[in-house]
């Protein structure tokens, strides 16, 4: 008889792949917000962080999944309050399908 395996949590939330689909901007830099985002990423199997950039205004987290970036921003707004702004930017055109490929920037700004 086989044991049922519990759902596995992804312990490694970072990837070496340089490609990214979305940027989640956290303004201002807040450790609580950063830990909340990383905890949400650990729960997802298909979302990874490719890069983190600390700016003077806050933190930019480069993610591999656009939908996940929007979902996390909505959860941040629900739990902490604040505002969300989404800005798609044209990245390239797919060679095979000729569709336009966009990268998404999601800015979460905490109310002060």
Characterize the structure shown.
- The protein is of the alpha+beta class and 112 residues long.
- It has one domain (22-109): Alpha-Beta Plaits (2-Layer Sandwich).
- Helices cover 25% and strands 34% of the residues.
- The chain is built from two helices and five strands; from the N terminus they run E-H-E-E-H-E-E.
- The chain has helices at residues 31-43, 66-80; strands at residues 22-27, 49-54, 59-63, 83-93, 100-109.
- Strands 2-3-1-5-4 form a five-stranded mixed β-sheet, covered by helices on one side.
- The longest helix has 15 residues, at 66-80.
- The protein starts with 21 loop residues before the first strand and ends with a strand.
The strand count comes to: 5
Alpha carbon gap, first and last residue: 57 Å
β-strand percent reads 25-35%
Shape: globular
Helix content bin: 25-40%
Structural class: alpha+beta
User: Which strand order do you get reading across the main beta sheet?
Assistant: 2-3-1-5-4
Named at the architecture level, the CATH assignment is: 2-Layer Sandwich
Task: Report the total helices.
Answer: 2
Radius of gyration: 16 Å
Could you give a quick summary of the protein structure above?
The chain contains 2 helices and 5 strands, in the order βαββαββ.
How do the strands and helices of this protein lay out in sequence?
Layout: E1 22-27, H1 31-43, E2 49-54, E3 59-63, H2 66-80, E4 83-93, E5 100-109
Parallel strand pairs: 1-5
Antiparallel strand pairs: 1-3, 2-3, 4-5
